[in-house]
Every structure is written in C-alpha cells, then in structure tokens.
Amino acid sequence: MSACRQSKCVSHIDTQTSLCSGLHIADTPITMQNWYKHVNWWGVVLTILIPFYACVQAIWIPLQWKTAVLSVIYYFMTGLGITAGYHRLWSHTSYRASNCLKILLALGGAGAGEGSIRWWARNHRAHHRYTDTNLDPYSVNKGLLYSHIGWLIMKQNPKRIGRVDISDLNEDAIVVWQHQNYLPIVIFMALLFPTLLSGMTWGDWAGGFIYAGILRMAFVHQATFCVNSLAHWLGDQPFDASKSSRDHFLTALLALGEGYHNFHHEFPSDYRNATKWYQYDPTKWVIRMWEYLGLAYDVKRFNPEEVQKRRLQQKHTVLAREASKLDWGVPPSRLAVLEWEEYVEQAEKGGRYLIAIAGIVHDVTDFSKSHPGGLLMLRSVVGKDATAAFSGGVYSHSRVAHNLLATMRVASVRGGCEVEIWKKHQHNEAEETSPMCQ
C-alpha cells in the first residue's frame, strides 16, 4: 500500500477508511465531506427527483378524465402486482398461481417500479424474520422516516441484512427472467405502456406519461412505503404487542388491504391480511376470485380457532398488564402465619378489627365506619371465622367487596380456621359440613 493511501487510512475514519479497510460506506460515520457517498442516488432519483419533476410538469399539463381513470385502474393493477404478487405469492407463498397469472403479476409488479421480485422478496423475508432488529432492512426502530423511505435513499451494507432462504425464487423461471431483464421491463411497464395507451387511444401522450406513468408509480411507492412505516407505528395490536406491527384501516386503504399488519406478522403465510368481511382487503378478494377461476390454488388459510386463540391470548396479556398496575393486596404466600390463638388474642387485645375469612386475617379497622352493613355487624365477627357470614351465611358479598377485602390482608391462619373445628375434621372426615374454610 502506498504512503499516500496509508496516510488517508490513518487520517480519516470515513470513506477513506472504508476504502482502505474494506468497510462498506454505510458502516462509516456520515460527515460533511462524505455525506454524498452515503446517498443511494438511484433511490433519490426514482423516489424523489422524478416525482418532483412530474409534479412541476403537472402545473402545465391538464389532467384529462380518461387519463385519470387510466391512472386509477393502472394503480390497482400495478399495486396488485406488489400486494398479490411480490408480497403474498412470492414472499410468503400464501398461494400458488398458474404461469399465466404469474407472468401478469410479474409485469404488474414491474410497473410499480419497486425492484425485481427477487430483490423485493429477499428484503421482505428478512424484514419478517428479523423484525425490529438491526438485521431488518427497514426496521422502524431506526426511525419512522428511515423505515418509510430512508432505507432506499441511504446506502445499506447488504451484508448487514439478515440472511434468508430464497432458493425457491432462484428456481422460479419467471422470477429469474424478470430479475435478469428488469430494466427494460420496468421502463416499458411503468412509463411507456401507460403513455402509449393514453396517447394512441385518446391522444394524451404527455398526460399518460406524467399522470398514469410517473405520478401513478409515485403513489404506489408511497402506499407500499406506508406498510413499512405507518403499519409499524399507527393502529392496534390485537394479536401481538411484542413487535411493532399494527392494524389500521388508513394503511389498508392506501395499500390495497395490507394495513392489517399485526395479523399479517402473526400469520404471514395466510393469503389474507383482513379476516373480517367488513375489513378492506381487495387483494384478498382478488385472490379469492382467482381461486374460483382456477388461476390460484393451494390458497393458505389459518384455522379460525388458531386466530381466535392468539387474539384471546393477546387480550389476556393486555388485561394482565393493566391488572398489574392495580393494588390486589398482599399475596397470601407472602403473609405472616399466625396460630388461631394468636389471631384471637390480637383481635381481642390489639385494638384493631381483625376478621378471618377463608383462612386469611383482614384488618378492617379503617373500613369499619363505612361498612354498608353497619359497625355492629363487623364487631360481631371480630376474632372469629367469618367465612360463612361473608359468603352468604349473613350476606353474599359482591366481587367488588372481595377485591376491597383483599387489600386488607395482614396475615394467614395456620390450618385455615379454628383449631377445634380443624381437629374435628381430622377425626371425622365424613362430617356433613366441611370444617375447612372455603
């Protein structure tokens, strides 16, 4: 290595370091001198500069209603190429498709301008396997803006993306064909096709290029990006709260049903994102139609009981978390243990209203004046076993009363109730009324 190159390695912990030591530029600090080398300029041109150019041109180019209709239709066609094709068919193999349908989805996905099937599915499988970690290529933990678009416009070290198996993609002839010929396919499907269609049909060449071509593609981009960002930030988590994925109608509306993301991360191989009939998931409806027509088969659906079990488990987790914030009293296992005689003695001489219920001693002194049944009723069971009286012998108390009583625990009684009763039970197990406190 020359002295000049050696001096650069020593003096700069930035791009020069990456060149000398073999570090990828993404693994070096961003400085005022090297920031432009951290930028993925192809991503900037495709997702920012070209859409900005189209927005400027749209000031002078009027939008014809026919071109507007074409733009909406082509948005759905290319969007389905991503959601039904790139995502649910190739990334998650949630169904199988005929070669005719696969070709159409490969062309439609290319029209969205989001990279080849192989590149897209490889990143998405890494996202699912390593969600919210540094191995996730668009982890929301790196920031909402980063997960939305930053990961595309800033260079990433491909070796830092988690490893996944894409052998099935490498063996798919249509995936390989699209990947090897992606540039001419994407130029034709994303820009030339809508331009030719609108120009040759109703003479709107410029409008077809700007509206049905560039701006339509930009809208599909942003809708897809919302699944990486918004769907990990906005909404509910009915199936799992340990990861960032969330369900929200807005994201589903933007991304052809991909917004029920919490369900999707729990059941990724299911062809649906939305399980309820009223939830917006046009991708699911289209796949169902293809299945009916024989174009899609081996469509995967999780057993409804498995879905319901996970939903109930998550509800239990949420309830347990909320319950842990409340005072439920000292757990019985942590209470001091008293002999029955000790309990009676403390109740009689301690100046406190101690009552034993179900083997637990409760100090109801502070509550005595507000007891709905009156002070005399409480005094009548002080120092005694009030289990029967509390549980229906005098009055069957509500669950609120049980909860309130639990906060007054101070000790437990060895054997659970009076010694005499306990001894009687030991000698006569056939006694009609169980002496053990319930």
From TrEMBL:
It catalyses: octadecanoyl-CoA + 2 Fe(II)-[cytochrome b5] + O2 + 2 H(+) = (9Z)-octadecenoyl-CoA + 2 Fe(III)-[cytochrome b5] + 2 H2O. SUPFAM superfamilies: Cytochrome b5-like heme/steroid binding domain. It is a multi-pass membrane protein. CDD domains: Delta9-FADS-like. The chain crosses the membrane at residues 39-61, 67-86, 182-203. The keyword Lipid metabolism applies. Gene3D superfamilies: Cytochrome b5-like heme/steroid binding domain. Its cofactor is Fe(2+). This is Acyl-CoA desaturase. It comes from Aspergillus sergii. The lineage of its organism: Eukaryota, Fungi, Dikarya, Ascomycota, Pezizomycotina.
